[in-house]
Amino acid sequence: MRMTDQRRIIAQVLSEAHDHPDVEELHRRAHAMDPHISIATVYRTVRLFEDAGILTRHDFQGGRSRYEEAPETHHDHLIDMKTGKVVEFMDEEIEALQTAIAKRLGYRLVDHRLELYGVPVDE
Predict the structure, then answer these.
(1) N or C of the chain: less Cβ packing under 10 Å?
(2) Per-residue model confidence as pLDDT tens digits over 1-19
């Protein structure tokens, strides 16, 4: 894949993101760095990065795909239903339980995605 200046900026925005931005937020951040970056360029670049395995798309509830750099290590997500905040976590007990369930059902687990949706306890 050819890395244009605009793609490089979009990649930089993604690598600096500590949240899971959607395309419109990626565009807002990239456009602040280079006003010539169009939303169409962001959509095309996100698709290219996803196809190349550089980026992971998440379809959390809310209707908008959100993105993160393809993680080096596995993690799951807890989504705050009030704010949309995404909390990444890893829990060995959950991982072991999923493997055990797959085995009990006659399968070897090769991949999974876990998304938990919640609201703050104090509300």
Answers:
(1) C
(2) 688 899 999 999 998 988 8
pTM of the predicted model over 0.90: no
Q: Compute how many other C-beta atoms are within 10 angstroms of the C-beta atom of residue 78.
A: 14
Determine the Cα–Cα distance for residues 100 and 94; give it in Å rounded to an integer: 10
92: helix, coil or strand?
A: helix
- Tell me the C-alpha distance between 40 and 62, whole Å: 21
Q: Judging by beta carbons within 10 Å of its beta carbon (0-12, 13-18, 19+), is residue 98 exposed, middle or buried?
A: middle
The answer to whether residues 60 and 79 touch, using CB atoms and an 8 Å cutoff, is: yes
**CA gap 19, 2 in Å, rounded:** 26
> pLDDT tens digits, residue range 93-119?
999 999 999 999 999 999 898 999 999
